[in-house]
Amino acid sequence: MKKNKKIVLAYSGGLDTSIILKWLQENYNSEVVAYTADIGQEMDRKKIIKNAKKLGVKKIIINNLKNTFVKEYVFPMIRGHAIYEGVYLLGTSIARPLIAKDQIKVAKKFKAFAVSHGSTGKGNDQVRFELGYHYFGPKLKVIAPWRIWELKSRTDLINYAKKHNIPIPKDKKGAPPFSVDDNLFHTSTEGKVLENPKNSAPEFIFQRTTSPEKAPNKPSYISIDFKKSDPVSINGKKLTPEKLLEKLNQIGGKNGVGRVDLVENRFIGIKSRGIYETPGGTLLLIAHRAIESVTLDKDTMHKKDSIMPRYAELIYNGYWFSKERFRLQKIVDLKRNKVNGSVKLKLYKGNVSIQSRMTKSSAYSMKKVSFEENKTFNKSNVERFINLHKKKLK
Question: Most buried among 49, 152, 213, 240, by the most CB within 10 A?
Answer without folding.
Answer: 49
